[in-house]
Amino acid sequence: MSGIGEIVTPLPFEEKKVTLFIPPIHVSTPAVYRAWDALGCPKGDQGNDLEPAAIHAFPELGQWKKAIEKATQQSPLLAGSGATWFVLGHTQLDSAQLAGVQVVYTTTRPQ
To answer: What angle do CA 29, 36, 86 make, to 5 degrees?
Structure first.
């Protein structure tokens, strides 16, 4: 992306498998942005600058992150302002490991 985000240059296609973890919580995007402003616009450790604010505004998101990390042995990434977490690859789990979480397996597709 360039300009102020209005110019989007497509990247070459890369096939990627992704596992989504959707916990049973609602996250308000406006609340996350308010928290981000109040916290002084923090930077996220994994590329999503909204993650610290989302966890601050909705502490249960941090609990879900830890549970997903324990179940997958990977550090999950937050999608946007939340609440969906994801890891690269198709991670097979015992459903009891993350009770209440919807797990979705997806793959990128060429245009």
So the answer is: 60
Round the CA-based radius of gyration of the chain to a whole number and report it: 15
* pTM (2 d.p.): 0.86
Tell me the C-alpha distance between 75 and 70, whole Å: 9
The secondary structure element, H or E, covering residue 92 is: none
Rounded Cα gap, residues 41 and 97, in angstroms: 34
Q: Which residue has tokens 């977490």? A: 85
Mean pLDDT of the region 70-80 = 94
Looking at the predicted structure, is the pLDDT value of residue 94 above 80?
A: no
CA 28 to each of CA 33, 54, 57: distance values in angstroms, whole numbers, following the listed order: 9, 9, 9
Encoding tokens for residue 90?
A: 């198709």
**Overall average pLDDT of the 11-33 stretch:** 95
